Amino acid sequence: MALRLLDGSEAIVDAAITAGARFYAGYPMSPATELIEFMAKKLPESGGVCINAATEIEGVNMALGAAAAGFRAATGSCGQGLALMQEAIAEAALNETPIVIFNMARNQQDYFQATRGGGWGDYRTITLAPKDIYEAVEHAQLAFHLADKYRVPVIFMGDNILARTQMGVEIEKRDFGALPEKDWQLDGTSGGSGASRQIWTFGGGKTNAPGPGPSEHWKRIAEKFDMIAGIEARHEAAFTDDAQTVVTGFGTGGLFVEYVVRELRSEGHKVGFFRPVTLWPFPGEALEKATENCRQVLVFELNAGQMIDDVKLNVTDRRKVSAIGGVSFDESGLNLGALMDARVIRERILAAMEVSNQ
Amino acid sequence: MSIVQTAKPPSIPSKKVADFKPSLLQTEEHHLCPGCGEPVAIRMVLEVIEELGLAQKNVCVIGHGCYGSFVMTMDVDCTLCLHGRAPAVSTGIKRMRPDVAVWTLQGDGDMTSEGLAEILHATARGENITCILLNNGVFGDTGGQMTASSVVGQRTKNTLEGRDPDYHGYPIVIGDMVASMQGSAFVARGSVHNAAAVAQTRRLIRKGFERQQEKRGLSLVEILTMCPTGWFVPAAGGADYMMESLGKTYPLGEIKDVAASAG
After folding, report:
1. Are residues B117 and A55, on separate chains, in Cβ contact within 8 Å?
2. What range defines the domain where residue B184 resides?
3. Does residue B5 fall inside a structural domain?
4. Is residue B155 part of a domain?
5. Given an 8 Å threshold on Cβ–Cβ distance, is B89 in contact with A198?
6. In chain A, whose CA is at the least distance from the CA of B127?
């Protein structure tokens, strides 16, 4: 297959459909708008449905319905739209409906929203943060796999650079392994059988087959997320064995950090990088190990300091951790700002290393 | 539906409705208050679904209210979704499983207060779903507070002197709104305050599901249901109170039927 030159948004949509996504309901919002444009064009061609929802709340609940019916379903927006979806994301976690939520974020300020969440209850959302379009093509498929594997909502976290950069990509169906049968799906066929199906956040079950009830159900959900945390944390790192300085960043920021660190390495600096691929579960043990011997850990993120909390929770000596990022938007307020620049990141890393050497 | 022959005397004795349980209920017991109208309404819906041969071909999406407890007793595939969002969840199910009858079970607080956008936009899209609205003009589940459909003058726990239009605004007559939109196929309002009304409402429910099967668009069957607890009246007085209060703002009958207008 030849490479095709695609917008990131189109590559993500093609990958999602390749993974079997058949339902999308969304609402336009920059820089996530192109997702619904491509979904509207391409889903019907693949036997799927794309609905222009009246609100993000309506869209995510439609996706919940399609997923409850047994189909791979998604919604998407940027962080502002995901703010409206929080109740339904929590609901998906607590009633175990697998949906995928694409957050083509305006910046990197949605880290807390994704990893802590704003809904009620003891839940987490697996969050995949690809660094570039190649990884995005994998993650757009992996998201549906993980959602089905654990019956959980999964957030795909991109940004405007990912959405609107063009790359030559080849989209092949990825095989992540076998999945359990969806014996819980609402297909309407079990009425009157005495064993009809139910999807309910309170886990009450039916008269004939009582469920565990709310307390026990929510305890099991929490245990499931503990289990996922032990299995699904992913990261990418290099040069950390002998690094005096380890620099962390996620998504596009992680890619920029990697570029700068490789450049500094080639010049002889003892610097390494560590990129969480999953923001939740956060690859804490791997980070702890990668930063055991270094003198300082730098956190680059375009926000006032969000991922740095997780870094400090996992680096053994949190006094080694400091921020080299900050709030930075372009003049529209809709896109990553001037701080997402390899030269600026290079200067900040070098300045921090100089202070550390004094 | 089986036709009862009247040419000969019946071979089996007549039986009261209360003597048998519809096959789509797992138990005849319910957990609602004495005098509540909701169990009768839900029972009728389940009987109609079976009559139409949809028992193994339907999914129910339940909102939040007292009727939500039927999520444990109705023997149909169902989900109890977020407050007000049943028409949106139903849209997702119906679009992916167009051959399955999808229906919502909502109260007036669920549909006209929390979920007004969802019912109106589902109607605008002409979704082939049937929405059952149990309208008692009050949040019964929380003990009797004002909803968007509480009628003028209605006493609730947060309109102690009665709903005052100058202060609390006017009720939303959702049936008329839905009927005025192109995407609706059938809109009707029934009641369960006496046996005749129950029989009439049963026919309305049946038409609602028939329009869905015909893929004509959204059907809304509103059913006035007694809530003596939420109205602070004696259980036996619920039916009379309902027709004197809600019954005047929400007249019974068919509001729209595309089948009729098409001749």
Report:
1. yes
2. 31-257
3. no
4. yes
5. no
6. A51
Inside any domain, residue B7: no
Q: Is there a contact between A128 and A157 (Cβ–Cβ < 8 Å)?
A: yes
> How far is the alpha carbon of B49 from chain A, nearest alpha carbon, in Å?
10
A58 to B56: CB separation less than 8 angstroms, yes or no:
no
* Interface touch B77/A87, C-beta < 8 Å: no
ipTM of the complex model: 0.97
Give the pTM.
0.96
CA distance to partner chain B, nearest, from residue A124 (Å): 19
Alpha-carbon distance of B41 to B62, in angstroms, equals 14
- A210 three-class SS: strand
Please report whether residue B60 resides in a domain.
yes
Q: Which 8-state DSSP code applies to residue B232?
A: T
- Picking from A22, A97, A120, A199 by the largest number of B CB atoms within 10 A of its own CB, the best residue to mutate is A199
* Strand, coil or helix: A85: helix
Closest to B76 (Cβ–Cβ): which among A59, A61, A191?
Answer: A191
Q: What is the pLDDT of residues A26-82, one digit of tens each?
A: 999 999 999 999 999 999 999 999 999 999 999 999 999 999 999 999 999 999 999
Note the pLDDT of residue B10.
Answer: 79
Give B96's contacts in chain A (Cβ within 8 Å). 22-23, 49, 65-66, 69-71, 73
Domain A4-169 fold: Rossmann fold (3.40.50)
CATH number of the domain residue B170 falls in: 3.40.50.970
Please write the tens of the pLDDT for every residue from B85-116. Answer: 999 999 999 999 999 999 999 999 999 999 99
Count CA atoms closer than 13 A to A33's CA, side-chain side. Answer: 6
User: Does residue A149 register a pLDDT over 80?
Assistant: yes
Cβ pair B77:A58 closer than 8 A: no
Q: What's chain B's average pLDDT?
A: 95
Q: Are A204 and B93 within 8 A, CB to CB? A: no
The dihedral region occupied by A69, where left means phi > 0, alpha psi between -120 and 50, and beta the remainder, is: alpha
Helical (H) or strand (E) element with A52: strand A49-52
